Amino acid sequence: MKSKSHFQDKVIWITGASSGIGEEMCYQFSELGAKLIISARNEGQLKRVNAQLPRNPGSAMVLPLDLEMISDLAEKVINAISYYGKIDLLINNAGIAVRDFAKNTSIEIDQKLMNINYFGSVALSKGLLPYFEAQESGHIVVVSSLSGKYGVPKLAAYAAPKHALHGFYESLRSELMDTGIFISLIIPGIIQTEITAHAVLGKGENYGKVETAFKKAYPVEKAVRKMIGAIEKRKEEYYVGGPEGFTLWVNRFSPWLLRRLIRNHPLKKIRSIKEKLFFWN
Ligand SMILES: NC(=O)c1ccc[n+]([C@@H]2O[C@H](COP(=O)([O-])OP(=O)(O)OC[C@H]3O[C@@H](n4cnc5c(N)ncnc54)[C@H](OP(=O)(O)O)[C@@H]3O)[C@@H](O)[C@H]2O)c1
To answer: Measuring from atom 46 of ligand 1, which residue has the nearest CA?
Structure first.
């Protein structure tokens, strides 16, 4: 007999569920017997994902939301809780990227990314905290990035909210010690999704291209399987991706060296270093 999965009947709220990592999470958590609440802006895409769930297609609560609309999010939390009467896990996965130099990026775009990638996540977590405290359990998962650990050219507006997530959630974790509420920060490397196609340029235009590095990147199915393993183990911080993860070690032990390596063309540089160090291609 198949053993019961850790996530069987757990209520999991996934943001950014309409594509990429979030979409794949929906399929894998559904396979594991979880009950899902799925959010993003595009309701049509959420319905498509819902209809494709491997177990009980169409069974998820589709809860469209725009993380930029911070003042709407408290009500979304109430809607989410009332559907199943509880929530066990919140996965703050939604996010957008930027591809432009800081000097060419308008302050409105800096603020937009801060709202979507940082304040939106914080608002949902804060909304849920009183419920998690009352039920004396809960797990908040935050999808960060290597850009949450160090900066590279053309990603300033993206790196800022990703760094902020670490500051906020590490502080929150220390406040929640021994409460039964857990925080996991996931750091994906370069994962095969269309994140760059959805990215914005400095004045808000759509970037629209899937970059080569992302076409050849770490498969999203494998990345999500590993993320789910880390979530089950309640890892506090977890890296998933290809050998580009070695930059975390370089940054920890010699931030000076990493800064010089990534000054120009970071992806090309990282790839050439990986090839030299790991014979990887
Ligand atoms: N792929 C990578 O290599 C990589 C690396 C490091 C970190 N990450 C992180 O992983 C997460 C998922 O990215 P992905 O690669 O799966 O990219 P993706 O395919 O572009 O997915 C992004 C998701 O976020 C949602 N979203 C965007 N803006 C939103 C808003 N204003 N309100 C609500 N939802 C919004 C999108 O849905 P709608 O457009 O329907 O709203 C979509 O479902 C992001 O936080 C990203 O920073 C990805």
So the answer is: 95
